[in-house]
Design goal:
By secondary structure, the protein is an alpha+beta fold. Helix content is 31%, strand content 26%. Strands 1, 2, 3, 4, 5, 6, 7, 8, 9, 10, 11, 12 and 13 form a 13-stranded mixed sheet that branches. β2 and β3 form a beta hairpin. α2 crosses α3 and α4 crosses α5. The longest helix is centred in the middle third of the chain and has 23 residues. The C terminus is likely disordered.
């Protein structure tokens, strides 16, 4: 819990982590006292000066002019009749510093989207990489930037992950994480535990420094602070009953869809995406 408090006090915590800390503080007076003591220690050990804001354009120009005498112009590469002037070098330095500042600011402000559902509500979420998530009632999903294949789940969701051999898709929970390249699976994260049900492909489940590979038709579980259980074969379609027959297919050939329908007696319209 100390690590979570530190993330919240440093401003690095997500929405889910802040909510979790609030619930923990309200659980008992002892928890609140521990938080107050940790917060006091944090303030006493904080650096005296906060990080300075980005320099202004005037400061950047002044710094470039200060360094200008040490810059050796590359005259040999200039075109005939062209003279490399000192102000050109200063302007190039300013442009380079500004470009680096813009890139840094963009990296620090990667947008995060939060999806929540009510007690009787389920929603379908298409992601930027082509993956699709069906979020169950009373659940929360945090998507960290359109360019990332990383989400955080609190509750239950069914994932149809687009295949990308160069970048795994990661689902983080309080008890552990699931990592895949492209597959379909359900992940239930609640009460500091995780249950993984794999419908298609394979999923790598990690917790407490240990990991297991869960294959199609298998189930594995994690309790907070423990390693994942050994995968066991189960009737996955009986476990995944909350979508009410609504299944998500990700780049699945029609022949495979017909095989699934025949095997499980499902009535689905293949013309629908979900």
């Amino acid at each position: 819990m100390e690590a979570l408090i530190a993330r919240v006090l440093s401003g690095e915590a997500s929405y889910f982590e802040k909510r979790k800390l609030e619930r923990w503080r309200r659980a008992s007076d002892q928890n609140e006292q521990l938080y107050q003591e940790f917060e006091l220690t944090w303030k006493l050990t904080a650096p005296a000066e906060a990080l300075s804001p980005p320099p202004s354009a005037e400061d950047i120009i002044a710094e470039a002019n200060r360094r200008r005498p040490n810059v050796i112009p590359i005259r040999k590469q200039a075109r005939p009749g062209t003279r490399v002037r000192p102000w050109m070098v200063a302007a190039a330095s300013v442009a380079a510093i500004l470009a680096a500042s813009i890139v840094l600011i963009r990296l620090q402000t990667t947008p995060t989207q939060l999806y929540t559902t009510g007690m009787r509500e389920a929603i379908t979420i298409p992601l930027a990489d082509g993956s699709v998530v069906r979020l169950a009632p009373n659940s929360e999903l945090e998507v960290r930037g359109s360019a990332e294949r990383s989400v955080r789940l609190d509750g239950t969701a069914f994932f149809a992950v687009a295949t990308d051999s160069t970048k795994p898709f990661v689902v983080r929970t309080d008890a552990g994480r699931a990592e895949v390249l492209g597959t379909r699976f359900e992940l239930r994260a609640e009460n500091d535990s995780v249950r993984l049900v794999v419908v298609e492909g394979r999923v790598r489940l990690s917790g407490d420094g240990e990991r297991v590979v869960v294959s199609e038709g298998e189930v594995s579980r994690i309790a907070r602070g423990s390693a994942p259980s050994v995968p066991e074969i189960s009737s996955v379609w009986e476990l995944i009953d909350w979508p009410d027959g609504l299944l998500i297919f990700q780049a699945t050939p029609l022949a495979c869809w017909r095989a699934v329908r025949s095997r499980h007696g499902l009535k689905m319209n293949p013309s629908r995406k979900w």
